Request: fold
Amino acid sequence: MINISELVKIFEISIPLYFLFIVSGVIAYVFIVWRESVKDGFNANKVFDMTLSTTLFCGLLCFALWRYFEWNKLYNPINWILSIDLQLLCVFISVFLPVVVALIFCSRNKWSVYRVLDILTMGLNFFLFSISIGVYAIYKAENYLFFSLLLILIYVAILRFRGYKFTSGYIFSVYITFVAICMVLFFRNPGYLLFSCVLFTIGIVNFFMRRRIIMDRKPLTQEFLDKIKTLLNRKEKKLHQEELLLHSEDPYLQEGRSTDNSDALDDAILEDVAKEQLDDRINLIKRVKTQVRKALRALKIGTYGKCEVCGRDIDSARLKAYPETTYCLDCAKKLDEQE
Reply:
């Protein structure tokens, strides 16, 4: 195996290699949280503010703790704080603090807390993966290699099941519990048991709070859901037929086009305009089909009638008029304004 030095020189400046792994993990965390949040309909600027605030708070707090530990090693070596593993403490802060910041932003912007927590899970997973790979590459610690492989597996599972098999919020609980168990199995550093118990408690509390909200929610009648499902299936088939019909009318695919329009500039311009209008209609149908499939997926996993962004119930009258919607009226207006 290639031996990786603990220091790397960049422009004649020696930088700890582990620091580069941390920076790459932070960049991956910010990008993934921002991308997934925008895909789910959250405000891009506010999400960026949330991730930036989280990164700055975590960085400053971990730096302050590092300086405090170093000071105690020199001037107060019997301080009890030194009995705690600093690296484990920083990892705990990197998991716990983003949750606190996310709760603040969700409260201010009326976002769905559980949906945001699931998105944070994806970013935190890559951050922990980068740190674990860094430790293994530098110190050859095999427990970090096993942990990294498990992180890859759980990220694939999240991509596969988020919003499809599990209701939002449950993935966060499963992930936090997974990290707590891994601390017990792989990282028995000083203080590991305390951190594991705190993370495990957070995961269990989130699970039961999410469960309680689902149980308290007034369900839509099965008759209403069956009717909606029938309407959506019919609409999906109709849209598919319309899309096929429009593709068959594509002026660029008509027989004799190369000979009929080769010397007629006016006809070529009209043809381009018709093509552009046709593409716009096809793109509109594709967007509606995507929304219909999202509604059908929500029906399948039992989240239909719940706003994707804020998590509140969608008015039944809106569902009747627009059955493929997955946004409440307020969030739909905000999304339209952004577009």
Summary: The chain has two domains: 7-216, 222-338. Residues 1-5 have pLDDT under 50 and may be disordered. Strands lie at 7-10, 13-16.
